Each structure stands twice: as C-alpha cells, then as structure tokens.
Amino acid sequence: MQHTTIREALSRWGEETRRDLPWRRTRDPWAVLVSELMLQQTQVARVLPRYRSFLERFPTPTMCAAASVGDVVAMWDGLGYNRRAVHLHRAATVMVLEHGGEVPDTLGALLALPGVGPYTGRAVLAFALEEDHGVLDTNAARFLARAVAGRSLAPREAQELADRLVPAGDAWAWNQSVLDLGATICVKRRPRCAECPIAEECAWNLAGRPEPDPAAGSAGTSGPQSRFEGSDRQGRGRLVQALRTGPIPVARVADAAGWPEDPDRARRVADGLVGDGLAEYVDGALVLPA
After folding, report:
1. How do the domains of the chain map onto residue ranges?
2. How is residue 78 annotated by DSSP?
3. Is 36 annotated as catalytic?
4. What is the rounded CA–CA span in Å between residue 287 and residue 290?
5. Are the CB atoms for 56 and 44 separated by under 8 Å?
6. For an engineered disulfide with 64, which of 92, 197, 209, 224 has Cβ 3.0 to 4.6 Å away?
7. Mutual orientation of helices 118-127 and 29-39 as an angle, nearest 10°?
8. What percent of the chain clears pLDDT 90, i.e. is strictly above it?
9. What is the pLDDT of residues 18-54, one digit of tens each?
10. How far apart are CA 72 and CA 69, in angstroms?
11. If you average pLDDT over residues 230-242, what whole number do you get?
12. Per residue in 171-211, pLDDT tens?
C-alpha cells in the first residue's frame, strides 16, 4: 500500500513540476546516450549549451565515429571529465562496427559499450525506448533509501527495488519524477522535507529522520569527492584545455599543467592522458589524438 501511495503522489508531483530539458523532448537513443554521459558529475546548466552543439556536430553514432577522438574531445569543452568523450567516441565506433551504426536496444549490448554502466544503460532503455527499467543514480538512490526502504541498501536490492517500483508502461515519466525529486527536494544535505510530495509516506521522515541518514553509504549514492584544487584532476583539465588550442611542446607541459616547479608530476599526468586516449605524443609535443 505504501508503494502505491508513493507512486501516485510522486507521479502527480512530477507531472506538475517536471523540468523542461532538451533531452526530455527526444526518444532518439543516441541523443539520450549523449545527454546521460554529459550529465555524469556535471551540472545541467553546463550541459545545456554543449548538448545542443555536440548533437549538431555529431547527430549520429556514425558521424561521431568518423571524427577523430580529438574532435570529439574538443566539442566536450567545458564539461570536464574528458575521458567520457573518449568513451563516447569508442562506443560510437563499436556501434558502427557491430550494430549497424545504431545504439543497441538490449541491456547486455549497452553494457558492453565503452563508458556505459548500469545506470546509463538502463537510462537509454527507459528514456529512449520507454522500457520498464528503474534508473539508479545518486538522486534515485537517496529516494529509495530514505523514502521507500528507510535504511541503507545493498547494490542488488537497490536495483531490484528501483525496478519493482516502476509503474508498468510508465517508466519514462516515473524515472524522470524520481530523478527530479532527488535533484531538487531529497537532496544530500538539508533535504527539503517540508516541500516533499511524499513526506507523509517517507519511511525516514515518519521515523523522525534519525541518524545516520539511510542514504549515507547506500548503493548508488556518492561518497565525498576528493579536493579538486591542486589535484591531478585539475592538472589534467588544464592540459586538455590547452590542447584544444594546439600542441604543447613536451618542455612546456609543466607550465600548461600549472606546475612549472614540478615537471615530473606534470609529465606523469600527461602520460596518464596518453594512456586514457585523451592525448598523444607526436614530434616532441603533446597533441589531441587524431
């Protein structure tokens, strides 16, 4: 009975408040896949302009695969975590070679693509093909642990619960509502329970919101992120940004990384970019891959 009430209340709220986002206006599996990879650890406001320009440049997997990795990385400018761009290019190449240039339509085939994990694979099926899968990201996991279970969840039971809650034939709208709730109301810190449409059915709220928060450490929820300032990730980002303007002579890699006094660290980070397929060494310079 509780699940039925939660479904009804959350579905009504979703219909009334759903955010109008461009990837919600399409059922094109490629466009959905692009949006999901872009949205990983990146705010919606940063994704919006890049999503449009990326799909204008690469409207199909075939056109993405035909471009160089460097071109795809260049179009990823401003999104961070540039390895995702390499994964997307590799995935597009697999689609061309093995799936006739189309995004595969089974979970197993999607999970076999580079850079596609359990959440992204199910998101493509639910949001593009409208199949009855529960999508489990950090926002959805908080909702499940707090409102539905009232306790921390192991990975398998979290996914099983997410799948079980999907109203038959309504996966697209249901999952969008769950994600919006987690992104705007059931947030990590200071959840806005007074504004929550399912507060009266939320297991954690009914229990008086005791500590520890059941979402802490539950399957699918994110842990504390390492400091960015001064990190290798910051140096990687500086190098990729510099590469978008042209080759970086090896002797200037430390300057471009922001560590002129630590060339060994800069070279190690540059080597990491090469290992990840984000760059190459050509004629004594670091360059975007051809």
Report:
1. 1-17+133-225, 28-127, 232-287
2. T
3. yes
4. 9
5. no
6. 92
7. 140
8. 72
9. 999 999 999 999 999 999 999 998 889 999 999 999 9
10. 5
11. 86
12. 999 999 999 999 999 999 999 999 999 999 999 999 999 99
The percent helix, strand, coil of the chain (3-state, each to 5) is 55, 5, 40
pLDDT of residue 81: 86
- For 72, 111, 116, 133, 169, the CA distances from 106, given in Å and listed in that order, are 25, 9, 12, 12, 17
In CATH, what number does 232-287 get? Answer: 1.10.10
CATH class of the structural domain 28-127? mainly alpha
Whole-number Cα distances in Å, 98 to 58, 88, 95, 107, 247 = 19, 15, 5, 15, 33
Considering 8, 15, 36, 131, which one is annotated as catalytic? 36
pLDDT at residue 283, as a whole number = 87
Rounded alpha-carbon distances, angstroms, from residue 243 to 29, 58, 148, 224, 232: 31, 21, 47, 30, 16
User: Residue 19 phi/psi, 5° resolution?
Assistant: -70, 140
CA 64 from chain centre, in angstroms, equals 19
pLDDT at residue 1 tops 50: no
Identify the pLDDT of residue 8.
Answer: 94
Q: Which tokens belong to 104?
A: 């595969």
User: For tokens 């955010």, what's the residue?
Assistant: 19
For 1-17+133-225, give the CATH class: mainly alpha
